[in-house]
Amino acid sequence: MANRGPSYGLSREVQEKIEQKYDADLENKLVDWIILQCAEDIEHPPPGRAHFQKWLMDGTVLCKLINSLYPPGQEPIPKISESKMAFKQMEQISQFLKAAETYGVRTTDIFQTVDLWEGKDMAAVQRTLMALGSVAVTKDDGCYRGEPSWFHRYPISQSKWSVPKRSCQGDDHRCWGDDYHCQEDNHHKDTLAKPNPRSNPRRKFPFGMYKIKSFSSQYFYSS
Fold first, then answer.
1. Is the pTM of the predicted complex or chain greater than 0.70?
2. Which CATH superfamily, name and number, covers 12-139?
């Protein structure tokens, strides 16, 4: 755990309220999912907020987690370092956060690097991981490992669609990059699919979902 000086007065009261939001039961569920999802020989941490922070704070497990949600060869973080240098570890946390947002996690559900590195808000870290698991279940693209009931489906807003698909490059239409929508292979280019502003706001997407304009910002982990 990172070294921090003692908190006094109001700052201590605020920190105590933040720590009260941390869910020990959810910690256990998230650890189990992360180990299963990464499909690697990752050591199970001892229970407790401090151990959970230490397990994640170098960014290695987080980067392996986000990579495991992509098909082989399409991992967003190709090089994962196990460096003990603080700036390298914080850099990897930042890489994970950027990749998680690109994957589909809303900005409002993304924790700040210091929330994990300094242990300022581990409940926010839990919230990001919950959202990440929910996006994975919602996409249903074959990369998620675990029971679908572990997470609720995650609403994806109309303004941001970040599913890693190939985008059709045809001049007359946009096919969203799969054979279901387009048979012209020369139209395809490996990139992130972006929404077509001219499309119907309730157009059906490859995963059987629909874009809609607004959603609730609350997501809950399902046991």
1. no
2. Calponin-like domain (1.10.418.10)
